[in-house]
Amino acid sequence: MRPFGYLRVASVDEAVRAAAGQPGAQFLAGGTNLVDLMKLGVEAPRTLIDIGRLPLDRVEERPDGGLRIGALVRNADLAAVPAVRDRYPALSQALLAGASGQLRNTATTGGNLLQRTRCGYFQDVSKPCNKREPGTGCPAREGAHRDLAVLGHSAHCVATQPSDMAVALAALDATVCLHGPEGERTVPATEFHRLPGDSPERDTEIRLGELLTAVELPPARPGARSRYRKARDRASFAFALASVAAVLTVRDGTVEHAALAFGGLAHRPWRARAAEAVLRGAPATEETFARAADAELAAAAPLRDNGFKVPLARALAVGVLTDLTGRAGRAAHG
Questions:
Q1: pTM of the entire structure?
Q2: 83 pLDDT higher than 50
Q3: Phi, psi angle pair for 261, to nearest 5°
Q4: E strands in the chain
Q5: Under a CB-based contact definition with an 8 Å cutoff, are residues 169 and 91 in contact?
Q6: What is the pLDDT of residues 198-217, one digit of tens each?
């Protein structure tokens, strides 16, 4: 690990000023991903700006009935908030599906969204990687890519975004709040993470010097149910091979509202707009759910060893949507 400076700040404005005035600075909160990457030599910040004592650790009710989640709220705490469990169960389920209990006690909302890919080539500084060092190539395309992207990838990168929480936030139409040198702005959670294109080194839409301060959830839709489901290689502490977050409202056997997002398939949580278009106004049947999943996954372009992700994601989507109609798993809340 390379030497670095350390600065503890007492306000959001101080944090932003410090980041703007110190090239190569990075914000530090829980550090569960950043510190690991520093040990591997992937990240080498000149200065760590410790934001751990900022007043961003609360979950607050918004006047419109939604929630504002501070960037420093711990994952374990957020999963246990009654308003989250009751009104946004997919979010609570996604948080509990991520990492170990010890990590959830340390990891923060902002850090979870900003965690970087677990692609082995990205984490191994002895290998080329366009995300880590633009222009060096993407050996994963012809190498080890079983866990990597089947949607939205490019010739420059096939990495996946590993956050479970981000998938649920995409389906829930959350908004990410940022504070930077030019003031405050918001970005829809569905647009916060980027597809790789020809700039895979840019994971998100965060601008230089901006601090992620909160995530806002809109009011829960009356009658809507939500769920998150994840397929992985082992029962705990494993990143998703594929995952699904769904929000569904059914009236008189017909889908009134549907929001669907896939994880583990792309460089960002994949909001399934084509599937949603098939679902809206259609009968809430397994046949409809299968047609919707097929419509979305028709765009998949799997590589040599990860084609299994397409039927896996299809099965997850159909299963979750079927459960949410109440035909299966009726006893499960949400």
A1: 0.95
A2: yes
A3: -140, 140
A4: 5-8, 25-28, 47-50, 59-61, 67-70, 175-180, 183-188, 211-217, 225-231, 242-251, 254-263, 270-271
A5: yes
A6: 999 999 999 999 999 999 99
